[in-house]
């Protein structure tokens, strides 16, 4: 079921990007634009812009990795945070182990462990329980999303935990005095207030996750960085192609940053001014 959703999202987003890139190439104005850009043997600025339409065709895969890793990562981070706050006897040691391991190992290593580990796990399940999981039908992007989600959860869990603990205890007690259950207190009081505190940090984590998706090529996922490498392999213009993909990453992250500011504005999150930040830094002895 999950891999079907992945395929649907991938194809829908890819169709949109294909329409955009096709428009750029078929209307002719982009080719005319390239003619005015200087070309050279040692360094070609024209090659930088020539590669952008081709790289953009794989942008949906990068967006899929980012969105999947962020959504599942935040959900898992909330579970980690709640387990740590409540010190659940059985789950707390497991949570502590996973968070420590994920924060203490490189993302690339985690990606490789996921890429090679999940197929081994599914094979073991097939042998023991007689199931018929077809490992070859699982897209490589699924393994990458799992790795990114766990890595994101390890860091976001501390952000969410701190945000939950920052909620005014008076509001929590007031909600309970009105007869709310623990679930209602979390859904109506704790999570909305914690979201206001955690949102700026989670937006920064999302930007970092977007850049981290460039490692997915090592698991066989052809996202924009892998596509840039493939294009560069045809004419050995690696430097120019990497500039091309860096411009795309930059543009995407600028959009994410602006989206984050819009969300903060909608949630009425006030940014501290420079004077308040300086006073806080002096008070903490920084």
TrEMBL record:
PROSITE patterns: ABC_TM1 (PS50928). It comes from the Bacteria. Belongs to the binding-protein-dependent transport system permease family. Residues 59-260 form the ABC transmembrane type-1 domain. It comes from Streptococcus sanguinis SK150. Keywords: Amino-acid transport, Cell membrane, Membrane, Transmembrane, Transmembrane helix, Transport. The chain crosses the membrane at residues 61-83, 90-118, 138-156, 185-207. It is found in: Cell membrane. The lineage of its organism: Bacteria, Bacillati, Bacillota, Bacilli, Lactobacillales. One of its GO terms (molecular function) is transmembrane transporter activity. InterPro entries: AA_ABC_transptr_permease_3TM, ArtM/GltK/GlnP/TcyL/YhdX-like, MetI-like, MetI-like_sf. The keyword Transmembrane applies. This is Amino acid ABC superfamily ATP binding cassette transporter, membrane protein. GO terms for cellular component: ATP-binding cassette (ABC) transporter complex. CDD domains: TM_PBP2. PANTHER family: L-CYSTINE TRANSPORT SYSTEM PERMEASE PROTEIN TCYL (PTHR30614:SF0), MEMBRANE COMPONENT OF AMINO ACID ABC TRANSPORTER (PTHR30614). One of its GO terms (biological process) is amino acid transport.
């Amino acid at each position: 079921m999950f891999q079907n959703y992945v395929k649907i999202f991938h194809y829908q987003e890819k169709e949109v990007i294909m329409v955009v890139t096709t428009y750029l190439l078929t209307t002719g104005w982009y080719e005319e634009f390239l003619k005015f850009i200087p070309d050279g043997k040692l360094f070609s600025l024209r090659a930088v812009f020539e590669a952008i339409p081709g790289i953009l065709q794989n942008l949906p895969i990068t967006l899929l990795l980012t969105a999947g890793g962020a959504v599942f990562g935040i959900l898992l981070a909330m579970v980690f945070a709640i387990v740590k706050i409540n010190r659940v006897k059985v789950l707390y040691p497991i949570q502590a182990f996973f968070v420590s391991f994920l924060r203490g190992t490189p993302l690339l290593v985690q990606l490789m462990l996921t890429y090679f580990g999940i197929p081994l796990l599914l094979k073991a399940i097939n042998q023991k329980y007689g199931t018929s999981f077809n490992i070859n039908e699982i897209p490589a992007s699924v393994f990458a999303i799992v790795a990114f989600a766990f890595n994101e959860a390890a860091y976001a869990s501390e952000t969410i935990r701190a945000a939950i603990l920052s909620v005014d205890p008076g509001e929590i007690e007031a909600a309970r005095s009105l007869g709310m259950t623990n679930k209602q207190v979390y859904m109506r009081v704790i999570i909305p207030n914690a979201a206001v505190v955690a949102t700026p940090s989670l937006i920064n984590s999302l930007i970092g996750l977007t850049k981290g998706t460039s490692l997915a090529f090592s698991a066989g996922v052809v996202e924009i960085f892998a596509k840039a490498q493939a294009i560069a392999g045809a004419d050995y213009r690696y430097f120019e192609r990497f500039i091309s993909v860096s411009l795309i990453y930059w543009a995407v992250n600028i959009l994410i940053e602006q989206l984050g500011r819009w969300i903060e504005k909608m949630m009425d999150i006030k940014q501290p001014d420079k004077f308040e930040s300086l006073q806080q830094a002096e008070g903490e002895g920084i």
